[in-house]
């Protein structure tokens, strides 16, 4: 089944996204401190602001809406794929069960009743 490959793909994407986020944050902090370089007071204010930032981040609705619908569609597709796999496995299992009963077994079953 796809479970192992799905997990590996997820972990790869997760790792890449996490590294990108951490690098972006580090680049931002470095940029802020570089701007204040040479001015002790500005460096101190920048460090305080960066370390004690309690500002609530507000995102624009359009990217959030796209992100939510993309995540939603991903999980809907995953659940559909899982359902289809289960359904196919059950149908295959039922076919194998009936196929394993031979005609002699069938006549034997009817004569015993």
Characterization of this structure:
83% of the residues lie in helices and 0% in strands. It has helices at 3-36, 40-51, 61-99, 103-111. It has a domain at 1-67. It is elongated. By secondary structure, the protein is mostly helical.
Condensed summary:
Helices cover 83% and strands 0% of the residues. With 113 residues, the chain is an all-alpha fold.
Task: Provide the fold topology.
Layout: H1 3-36, H2 40-51, H3 61-99, H4 103-111
Order of helices and strands: HHHH
Distance between the termini: 42 Å
Low-confidence stretches: 105-110
Derived structural class: mainly alpha
Give the strand content: under 5%
**Which whole number gives the mean pLDDT?**
80
Shape: elongated
- Percent of residues in helices: over 70%
């Amino acid at each position: 089944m796809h479970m192992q490959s799905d997990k590996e793909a997820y972990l790869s994407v997760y790792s890449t996204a996490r590294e990108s986020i951490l690098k972006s944050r580090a680049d931002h902090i470095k940029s802020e401190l570089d701007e204040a370089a040479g001015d002790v007071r500005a460096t101190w204010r920048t460090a305080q602001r960066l370390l004690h930032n309690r500002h609530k981040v507000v995102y624009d609705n359009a990217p959030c809406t796209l992100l939510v619908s993309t995540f939603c569609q991903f999980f809907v597709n995953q659940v559909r794929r899982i359902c289809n796999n289960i359904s196919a496995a059950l149908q295959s299992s039922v076919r194998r069960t009936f196929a394993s009963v031979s005609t002699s077994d069938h006549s034997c079953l009817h004569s015993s009743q």
